[in-house]
């Protein structure tokens, strides 16, 4: 089973207007609502690829109820911790000539609720996969990823971490199955400018030497580079298409890689991850199965 953890789920309220004018009443042309957060995005795309998962995390209030119901309606099993106070955040995304976002803060998470999450994580068994993705709410300890992995360290669990800076570096000692920095994040980690595949490979290998089993570096329009746990290097170009939405593309790539790596074929995992990320980037919503496999044929 794959478990995804979303610490701060959200309702994304996407509004389209001709021209946003501050200080005036603006009328929308269309509105759409999505239930998300990086871990939830991974679960949704895994479902499209036929991989069952269970979504964990924290929800609160009427918005939390809507998120939980919306995720379950997509056929995904949930086991959220329900917070007594506050409400899950709403992110307002205004699309006009420019894109403007107003992201909510989310509810406070106390020690009691955090312990409840830890109890749910005790259900993971050898062979399961856990996905830790995204930033941490300011009401949680900054080392929460490390605390989770420490509690799971006595089991043979595949750990996938999609995070940045210290949040990523501090978990390498637990030898995660997969990490997925992009080339800019990789540059930032080591304080260097990376311009060639050879340079990116060199610093990705440093992350592997520090503990990561598989290092997947997304490079936007230049494709992706993978150093797998057999120390083989794979490079994959991008699919042809028009980018209309980059939100969730990285989460989709993670889901595609997880689905594609079930049999240990990392070259296929990289291709499926690339196609899955592209299918999201070329759509207004998260990737759909038909679009994913159409793009996979290009690779």
Topology overview:
Blueprint: E1 2-6, E2 10-16, E3 30-36, H1 38-48, E4 53-60, H2 61-73, E5 77-78, E6 81-83, E7 89-95, E8 99-102, H3 111-121, E9 129-133, H4 144-152, E10 158-162, H5 165-169, E11 178-179, H6 183-190, H7 197-209, E12 214-218, E13 224-227, E14 233-236, H8 249-260, H9 266-281, H10 289-296
Parallel strand pairs: 1-4, 1-9, 2-7, 4-5, 4-6, 9-10, 10-11, 11-12
Antiparallel strand pairs: 2-3, 7-8, 12-13, 13-14
Helix pairs in contact: 1-8, 8-9, 9-10
Describe this structure in words.
With 299 residues, this protein is of the alpha/beta class. It is 35% helix and 23% strand. It is built from 10 helices and 14 strands. The strands form 2 sheets. Strands 1, 4, 5, 6, 9, 10, 11, 12, 13 and 14 form a 10-stranded mixed beta sheet that branches. A 4-stranded mixed beta sheet has the order 3-2-7-8. α4 links the parallel β9 (129-133) and β10. The longest helix is centred in the C-terminal third of the chain and has 16 residues, at 266-281. The chain is globular and about 55 Å long.
Summary of the model, kept short:
This protein is an alpha/beta fold. The protein contains ten helices and 14 strands. The chain is globular and about 55 Å long.
Q: Taking all residues together, what is the mean pLDDT?
A: 94
Low-confidence sequence ranges: none
Radius of gyration: 19 Å
Shape: globular
Number of helices: 10
Distance between the termini: 28 Å
Strand content: 15-25%
The biggest sheet, with number of strands, parallel, antiparallel or mixed sense and barrel status, is: 10 strands, mixed
SS elements, strand count = 14
User: What oligomeric arrangement do these chains adopt?
Assistant: single chain
Q: What string, H for helix and E for strand, traces the elements in order?
A: EEEHEHEEEEHEHEHEHHEEEHHH
User: Class by helix and strand content?
Assistant: alpha/beta
Could you estimate the helical fraction of the residues in percent? Answer: 25-40%
């Amino acid at each position: 089973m794959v478990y995804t953890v979303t610490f701060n789920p959200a309702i994304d309220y996407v509004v389209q207007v001709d021209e946003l004018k501050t200080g005036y009443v603006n009328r929308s042309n269309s509105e759409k609502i999505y239930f998300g957060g990086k871990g939830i995005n991974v679960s949704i795309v895994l479902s499209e690829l036929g991989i069952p998962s269970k979504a964990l995390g924290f929800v609160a209030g009427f918005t939390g109820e809507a998120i939980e119901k919306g995720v379950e309606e997509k056929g995904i099993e949930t086991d959220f911790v329900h917070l007594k106070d506050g409400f899950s955040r709403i992110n307002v995304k205004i699309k006009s000539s420019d894109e403007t976002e107003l992201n909510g803060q989310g509810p406070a998470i106390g020690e009691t609720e955090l312990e409840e999450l830890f109890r749910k994580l005790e259900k993971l068994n050898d062979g399961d996969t856990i996905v830790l993705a995204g930033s941490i709410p300011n009401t949680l300890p900054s080392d929460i990823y490390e605390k989770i992995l420490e509690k799971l360290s006595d089991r043979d669990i595949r750990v996938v971490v999609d995070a940045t800076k210290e949040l990523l570096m501090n978990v390498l000692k637990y030898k995660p199955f997969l990490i997925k920095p992009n080339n800019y994040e990789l540059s930032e980690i080591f304080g260097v400018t990376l311009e060639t595949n050879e340079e990116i490979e060199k610093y990705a290998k440093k992350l592997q030497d520090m503990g990561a089993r598989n290092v997947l570096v997304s490079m936007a329009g230049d494709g992706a580079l993978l150093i797998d746990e057999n120390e083989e290097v794979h490079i994959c170009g991008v699919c042809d298409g028009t980018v209309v939405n980059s939100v969730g593309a990285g989460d989709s790539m993670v889901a595609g890689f997880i689905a594609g790596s079930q049999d240990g074929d990392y070259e296929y995992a990289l291709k499926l991850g690339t196609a899955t990320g592209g299918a999201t980037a070329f759509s207004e919503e998260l990737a759909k199965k038909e679009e994913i496999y159409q793009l996979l044929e290009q690779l």
